[in-house]
């Protein structure tokens, strides 16, 4: 039986949301669509936070709700806590704006 | 009275209120103290104060005026006293006239004209007191549920929001629209990032679809024009504590609260929500106080605040019902939790059960039950501004 406290929204997602506290070293069963996947938890994860349910390479898309929620900034092995320390957003990034736009802003 | 009805206050303009407030509206920062003092004296009078209304460019003036008029002519408002300082860009006499056009009692007080704050205060109190007494004599009468407009906002979202409480909220708003012919309105345009394409596909026509996409792009441009990385502002620290990692994740969860039915239109900040049945979007920032203030100006009768971590977010004119599906939050901040549906997330209850829990509370509130924030006198008012002051 998959652990009901690990929620995967869409079968294409590569993260699950923990609806209980997870402990490093425990082995959990995650329901992904009709399938079941076994994942070893790499570190303690608190309620409401996410874990990778497959190996995700640096730069790859993090998928939840079947959509991109950003990119991995480092390699994230299955069972690892996924959060602001290893994921970045792709929206509203003024820091990535081109020089011309930055110039307009500074004038 | 049958299930299709509630007990409300009829207005001359055809709207029906679920509350019968007297509001005292400031048109500029220099009238705020007079407004607050008058509202302290008159029982149940609601002060509308803000730092705006002068030295603003036209688009901001329109937005400020529209928002203030929205509260003074809200379905839940019986009458309004406008207090101005002197001659300002938001004109107090003009505002009072526009309020009177809806058949509501209205009065205009000008501090300069009254030769100072003491006379102005006395006139404001006398006028508001008379309105409050007249309002108290008005009786609730049976009214059709189709008159109701359901506002939706999220607050201190976390990962439970999109998985639980937003689902119950979406089911409840679509129950009002589909089963009773009412209206819904959600907002927070920057929180469409990542889900804007799917959202725009729900538009009733191509024009509305393009408008949704353009408004989302406009917000992205505005944020980028600051030259900074928006990750410093979104998700907020409390969102991140709750497990939300990026604005995209927050958005995709936030959109769950709007369900999946058709979108009739996207309207300006603080603009009146159309009377035709269906779901509308108001173009507001994700900033909760500003967003909720805009939806209140639009005339939503009540608002469901769907919260992850719990929040004081509330509005004095438009009652707010707070729902959470996070079992920890319901325990930590019971005073921010009108409806706890966490059993649908971590227990054995269904989302239909959760929807019924919320719906029953809504029916009670529209018929007069005060919400937690009303009982505690909690309210925030913040008009979103577009550009700089001059």
Automatic annotation (TrEMBL), chain A:
Residues 13-88 form the SAF domain. One of its GO terms (biological process) is D-galacturonate catabolic process. Keywords: Hydrolase, Lyase. This is UxaA family hydrolase. The keyword Lyase applies. GO terms for molecular function: hydrolase activity; lyase activity. Pfam families: SAF. It comes from Haloarcula limicola.
From TrEMBL, chain B:
One of its GO terms (molecular function) is hydrolase activity. It holds the Pfam family GD_AH_C. Residues 8-135 form the D-galactarate/Altronate dehydratase second domain. This is UxaA family hydrolase. Keywords: Hydrolase, Lyase. The keyword Hydrolase applies. One of its GO terms (biological process) is D-galacturonate catabolic process. InterPro entries: GD_AH_C, GD_AH_second, UxaA_altronate/galactarate_dh. Residues 145-388 form the D-galactarate/Altronate dehydratase C-terminal domain. The lineage of its organism: Archaea, Methanobacteriati, Methanobacteriota, Stenosarchaea group, Halobacteria. Belongs to the UxaA family.
């Amino acid at each position: 039986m998959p652990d009901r406290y690990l929620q995967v929204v869409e079968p294409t997602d590569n993260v699950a949301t923990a609806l209980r506290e997870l402990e490093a070293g425990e082995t959990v069963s995650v329901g992904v669509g009709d399938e079941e996947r076994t994942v070893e938890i790499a570190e303690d994860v608190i309620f409401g936070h996410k874990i990778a349910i497959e190996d995700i390479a640096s730069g790859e898309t993090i998928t939840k709700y079947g959509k991109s929620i950003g990119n991995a900034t480092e390699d994230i092995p299955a069972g690892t806590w996924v959060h602001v320390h290893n994921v970045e957003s792709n929206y509203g990034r003024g820091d990535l704006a081109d020089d011309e736009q930055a110039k307009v802003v500074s004038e | 009275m049958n299930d299709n009805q509630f007990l409300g206050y009829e207005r001359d303009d055809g709207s029906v209120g679920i509350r019968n407030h007297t509001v005292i509206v400031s048109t500029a920062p220099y009238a705020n103290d007079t407004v607050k003092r008058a509202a302290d004296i008159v029982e149940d009078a609601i002060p509308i104060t803000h730092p705006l209304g002068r030295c603003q460019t036209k688009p901001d003036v329109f937005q400020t005026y529209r928002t203030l008029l929205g509260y003074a002519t809200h379905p839940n408002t019986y009458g309004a006293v406008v207090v101005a300082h002197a001659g300002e860009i938001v004109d107090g006499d003009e505002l009072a006239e526009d309020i009177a056009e809806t058949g509501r009692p209205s009065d205009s007080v000008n501090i300069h004209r009254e030769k100072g704050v003491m006379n102005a205060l006395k006139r404001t109190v006398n006028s508001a007191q008379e309105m409050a007494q007249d309002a108290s004599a008005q009786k609730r009468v049976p009214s059709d549920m189709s008159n109701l407009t359901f506002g939706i906002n999220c607050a201190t979202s976390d990962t439970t929001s999109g998985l639980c409480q937003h689902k119950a909220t979406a089911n409840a708003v679509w129950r009002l629209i589909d089963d009773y012919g009412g209206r819904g309105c959600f907002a927070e345009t920057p929180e469409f990032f990542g889900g804007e394409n799917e959202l725009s596909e729900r538009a009733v026509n191509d024009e509305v679809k393009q408008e949704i996409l353009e408004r989302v792009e406009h917000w992205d441009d505005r944020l980028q024009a600051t030259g900074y990385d928006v990750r410093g502002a979104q998700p907020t620290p409390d969102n991140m504590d709750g497990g939300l990692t990026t604005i995209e994740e927050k958005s995709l969860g936030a959109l769950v609260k709007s369900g999946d039915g058709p979108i009739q239109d996207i309207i300006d900040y603080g603009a009146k929500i159309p009377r035709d049945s269906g779901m509308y979007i108001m173009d507001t920032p994700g900033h909760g106080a500003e967003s909720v203030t805009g939806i209140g100006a639009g005339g939503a009768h009540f608002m469901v605040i769907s919260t992850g971590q719990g929040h004081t977010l509330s509005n004095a004119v438009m009652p707010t019902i707070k729902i959470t599906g996070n079992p920890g939050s319901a325990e930590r901040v019971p005073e921010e939790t009108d409806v706890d549906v966490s059993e649908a997330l971590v227990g054995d209850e269904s989302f239909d059960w959760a929807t019924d829990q919320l719906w029953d509370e809504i029916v009670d509130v529209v018929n007069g039950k005060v919400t937690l924030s009303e009982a505690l006198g909690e309210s925030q008012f913040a008009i979103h501004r577009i550009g700089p002051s001059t």
